[in-house]
Structures
1.
Amino acid sequence: MTVNTPAVRGPAPPPGITPRERLLQAAVEAFAEKGFTATTTRDIANRAGMSPAAVYVHHDTKESLLFTVSVEGHQAALAVIRTAAALPSAAQGPAPLPGEGDHVARLRQMVREFSTWHAVNSRVGRIVQYEFDALTPDHRAEIADYRRQIERVMRDVLSVGIADGAFDVADVPGTARAILSLSIDLVRWFSPRGSTSADDIAQLHAELAVRMTTPR
Amino acid sequence: MTVNTPAVRGPAPPPGITPRERLLQAAVEAFAEKGFTATTTRDIANRAGMSPAAVYVHHDTKESLLFTVSVEGHQAALAVIRTAAALPSAAQGPAPLPGEGDHVARLRQMVREFSTWHAVNSRVGRIVQYEFDALTPDHRAEIADYRRQIERVMRDVLSVGIADGAFDVADVPGTARAILSLSIDLVRWFSPRGSTSADDIAQLHAELAVRMTTPR
């Protein structure tokens, strides 16, 4: 994983995190457990070991906390897929590879990393998806823009690969969205206590994305 | 569409629906607009043009209304995919077709119908997914069983097709889930006012599912 924001990543708060990070972690825990509507600022303050007044120093509303969780989640997911798109394979280093293998390796890496991120961060992913309507219209528009940026990375990689003959895709926006759906739908059903590992699912999704896009 | 439950289908209540159906439609509207937690039984009663006391005749709790919406939604989705699995192509009638085309046509039909259902019922789909944790543990278990039945239909169709040489799929449960994810993730982003029609998306998903499963 390239992006490691404590509020978005781990179950246990590491020692020495900042009050801001502690607050975001507490918000994620409270929203995940009780839902956004039933959570009070006091709940979050208690979980973070802070006074409600101290919470207001960082966030003047509960919605502002949800928005920050959403922004950080989307920024992290966008960074993961952008990094993977720039590096066809971590083992092969930063230099772009020539030939068709390049496009396929890049797509595989993008889907693998994007699915892994959604499996590892399924709790944050659920909050961000399920409570989207609780954001203000301006904040919803900002989050929608992150989503469009993520789709654009996938569309661009498909388009470049089509031009090189590596992919055979008639509907680029629709196929880009469908590939991303495999990863995003993980937040609905993936459990770290389930029988299938995040790595195995990410590997499967990468193979299915290659099947969806390469010439028959 | 094979299943036509008013509370799960249409935006406008047709004249002459039963009080039970009117109540479920009102619950769907209220949950979609305000979320489950912020909705009161009185909200639902008002929308249905009933007294709160009349609501209690049908449902003793708000959770019971959510559960009924969830059960009907899952039953409808299960019926859609089961019907499509039994009939490889609506145009070809109920008799099963011989040969490999049978399996591919059946899969295509299943995915097309399942995606269409999720696009048309995206509002109910969002409620059912996003408010799943608001159900009682017993009710969550019942809904999880419907989800397993839907996955089983897809797994069975893939397995029979593999045995006949029509499909080449190494991970049947994982691939079945991935195919279903294309349809299910529609409830997150599909809008009837968007630029892409439900038919076009359903057709694309069917083609992608065939690519994911047929031999290279």
2.
Amino acid sequence: MRIPRLAPEWTTTEWLNTSEPLTLERLRGRVVLLHAFQMLCPGCVTRGIPQAQRVAEYFSHEPLVVVGLHTVFEHHEAMRVESLRAFLHEYRVRFPVGVDAPDPAGGFIPRTMKAYAMQGTPTTVLIDGDGRIRQQTFGVHDDLRLGAALAQLLSELRGARHSAVDGATLEPKRFGCDEDGCANR
Amino acid sequence: MRIPRLAPEWTTTEWLNTSEPLTLERLRGRVVLLHAFQMLCPGCVTRGIPQAQRVAEYFSHEPLVVVGLHTVFEHHEAMRVESLRAFLHEYRVRFPVGVDAPDPAGGFIPRTMKAYAMQGTPTTVLIDGDGRIRQQTFGVHDDLRLGAALAQLLSELRGARHSAVDGATLEPKRFGCDEDGCANR
Amino acid sequence: MRIPRLAPEWTTTEWLNTSEPLTLERLRGRVVLLHAFQMLCPGCVTRGIPQAQRVAEYFSHEPLVVVGLHTVFEHHEAMRVESLRAFLHEYRVRFPVGVDAPDPAGGFIPRTMKAYAMQGTPTTVLIDGDGRIRQQTFGVHDDLRLGAALAQLLSELRGARHSAVDGATLEPKRFGCDEDGCANR
Amino acid sequence: MRIPRLAPEWTTTEWLNTSEPLTLERLRGRVVLLHAFQMLCPGCVTRGIPQAQRVAEYFSHEPLVVVGLHTVFEHHEAMRVESLRAFLHEYRVRFPVGVDAPDPAGGFIPRTMKAYAMQGTPTTVLIDGDGRIRQQTFGVHDDLRLGAALAQLLSELRGARHSAVDGATLEPKRFGCDEDGCANR
């Protein structure tokens, strides 16, 4: 059996969308989705970030936190914090975003990215309530798998005592068919 | 607190994609996703059925069964079993599909559809390991919510002892950026 | 130089969505988009037919006619005219659709499909104002190419004297950015 | 009858993806698609620029030129030329892009954007072979309309003598159906 390792603490130079820096230690007891991205990475912009936004919205009533990490490893001059700030504004990213600290030895890969051995962007890390890395994915998950993985981590938090499966139904708009389906009344 | 009701047994005239009829009773101990559809319902064809297929594929190693139900409530002559059979073949639907039995009193709504008080197609019913209806949705779920709901029901089955969250990562194909993301090595 | 051949006349058993049968001869002087499909062909349903519908709508003020042809070459029992009629109703197909006549020798391929040497469905045939086949495509075009090809045939009709390029602009809804763009006032 | 006005000459500070600055005067005799965008405008990134790239690729053998114009009217510090250069690299934008010159009076709207009275980004301007504005659209066109408009302008150039409608067909991959369609041989 593979024992998940403790997620390394983040090393950042700045935080946006939050009044104070976030630390993993203070997020114990909650599930954390860490989304590492670069603002000029097409796969992040068109798929990764929108997915992180959907997660933040859908699980907003759960003990789950979505945290962005700007892990610039190329075109450093092009993605400075003023550009990132405008990017978050225009793309309506509301979750907190930390700026990964540069390598003190002058390398291209920033410090947190290195500590997690990330292979590129986007990378999505799922961290459980005990602060352990349970899944780290380079590229984009599909929503079905990601939803399932997050619900599993949440059910572990709860000991599966309370169910998040509700009975909500979508009300049909009218008799007949539209692109959503066909109503019988 | 709302107590989920026991899912009514299905009343069918025929089964496709299975050597013998399925009953809810025999599926106890497993999570069931019941997907009610009509082969000429656009929302079913373009969104509902592909989603049910993704669920069947992704959860194929879990105690979870996807069952289709052909609940024709309009254009009965146009959706007879020969047409359904060809439809399942062309759309590569592999999960078992039952044909809902017609109303003996001659009404439009078939029997199982009526027993579940479904409002139209597609309708997705999530049934837990004890045979209770936990969620019934008319229209199309998003994948994130559906994945989360199914994982929750699976974790209840297991008592959340064993985790389905694995550590799989997507391998980067090459250095540089493509539509999936940017690799750093 | 390749001389386009005259489009063979259609041989049909029935017409839907029109009060009287259509013939190529009576459509001379207009551009014709002939869309050959089967109601149980997934590529037709999800991509080909929606594209033909967009063409019918966009070019509704031009001398251009979209004509459907139901060319069943497999599962004949599953796609009889009652099923086709329900299909057209549910998918809101409004353009005229002819039912291709069966091979009198009992072969699988219907007569018009054979006369055009179509390779399968969907097949889109562009016929110019003189009744000549100018393009025949198996599979799905992209919209940019199809729009360009149709406009070219229309400009030949007109002798390119009158321009269909208008000056319409999309009005911005509000200041700021949304998924359509960013407005400056 | 509305007489199209002559497209104002561009006023730029820099050009990328080209060895020398482009002027409208030197592009006479060709159709020009001018795509005005901002690198942090979501609608430009996800829809407008990909469409301009498709046009550049599809019409590469025609007398048609796609020209980008970076018309920054907000977050000026965030979208400087170093950032734009990295953006074009990561998004694989190959067509020439001019940087619109700032307002000498210190206003937010850059000079070319003002000269064309653009309402925001993306804006697509179609300029005919005589240098006249034939269509200016704020927001995103659909491909069918844009393909038709460009083909119309090209046919005017040629006097509609030579046809760009070829007879290309997509070869079926195999017998049976896939997401593109159903083959009969």
